[in-house]
Amino acid sequence: LEGINGAAVALQQAERLRNQTAARDSELDVRMMVVPHHMYVAEEISEAWTRLRAGSNPSVIVLVGPNHDDLGVTDIQTTDGRWMTPWGYVETDSQLVDSLLAVGASKTTEVWMRDHSIGVHIPYIAALFPDTKIVPITYRHQAALPEAKTVLDQLLPRLPKDAVFVYSIDFSHYLTAEEARKKDIETLQWMTPIPNFDAIDQAGADHFDSHASVNMFLQSSVMYGCERQVSCYGNSGDLAHDSTGPTTSYFIWMCDNKPVDTISIHAGGDLMFTRGIRAVRERRGAQNFMHDIAV
After folding, report:
1. Taking the CA atoms of the chain, what radius of gyration do you get in angstroms?
2. Preceding amide of 193 cis, omega within 30
3. What are the start-end ranges of the H helices in the chain?
4. How many other CB atoms are there within 10 angstroms of residue 234's CB atom?
5. Would residue 227 be called left, alpha or beta, if left means φ above 0 and alpha means ψ between -120 and 50 degrees?
6. Which residues, 6+ apart, have CB-to-CB distance to 198 below 8 Å?
7. Cα dihedral angle (204, 210, 213, 215), rounded to 10 degrees?
8. Side-chain half-sphere exposure of 84, counting CA atoms within 13 A
9. 3-class SS string, 90-102
10. How confident is the model at residue 264 (pLDDT cuts 50, 70, 90)?
11. Exposed e or buried b per residue across 52-87, where buried means at least 16 C-beta atoms within 10 angstroms of its C-beta
């Protein structure tokens, strides 16, 4: 973790959480979350990890984020290395990592030595989930929905049932606080309630820093039937009371594995709208006749 931007702050925060006693909440079943990697909001990131600890006990965490410097020869990067922390090593799941190589991922050591999108979350995993292995994934900027689907299709059949996804994503960049809020509203509209994948893939860095990570989050939440909820939102300009300087926006999404509401569908065919039906239609009107039928 030495040399990774923000890692020192993350280590301090993780040490504080490690010394706190936190019981599991049986009402929570957190399957995935989106958290920033900009440690300007370290307290909010720590709160998200605290909730994840209360709401899950995974044997594997899939940790996903952007490859900020576009290092490596492929759009998908992973590693079977391990991270040393004050509380021991964070190990990777080598079998799951190797499965990604079969769909075009590659291993570039320099990515993991420099990029903070993954590095700042390692201390939290070491402190709060000491026996959990990880599957680290970063995407270069040009990666989008196809790469996200490829990775998910490869991982999902192989993941244990208790696996958790953590998406490390920062949102709008380089804008004033007011401009950032406008972009964030657009992003929110694209992500809820039904994802607009075309709009997401056409967005720029002024909306978020990793198209593939956002796409993978949305795809996985749909596949798991999770309820996506924004638990925290803001931008660095508002927090610093600076309305003119460049900002970074933050969303924290928590996804609980709640049962999906069911609907009943009744299908009919070969309907005849003559004879007795015609008399009812003429008496009550066509609009009244079709009132309770959805086409």
Report:
1. 23
2. yes
3. 7-18, 42-55, 94-101, 109-114, 116-119, 122-128, 145-155, 177-191, 197-202, 211-224, 236-239, 275-284, 286-289
4. 21
5. beta
6. none
7. 10
8. 1
9. ECECHHHHHHHHC
10. very low
11. bbbbbebebbbbbbbbbeebbebbbbbbbbebebeb
Report if pTM > 0.90. no
pLDDT in tens, 189-239: 999 888 999 999 999 889 999 999 999 999 999 998 888 999 999 999 888
CA distances from 241 to 39, 177, 212, 238, 246 (A): 17, 9, 32, 5, 12
In 3D space, the residue among 123, 134, 86 whose CA is nearest the CA of residue 10 turns out to be 123
Contacting residues for 79 by C-beta, under 8 A, at least 6 apart: 92, 97, 107, 108, 109, 111, 112, 136
Q: Which two tokens stand for residue 208?
A: 């978020």
Whole-angstrom distance, CA of residue 34 vs CA of residue 202? 21
Record the tokens describing residue 215, joined without a space: 């796409």
Residue that is written with structure tokens 């605290």 in the block: 50
**276 burial class (0-12, 13-18, 19+ CB within 10 angstroms)?**
exposed
- State the virtual CA torsion across 128, 133, 166, 98 in degrees, nearest 10: 170
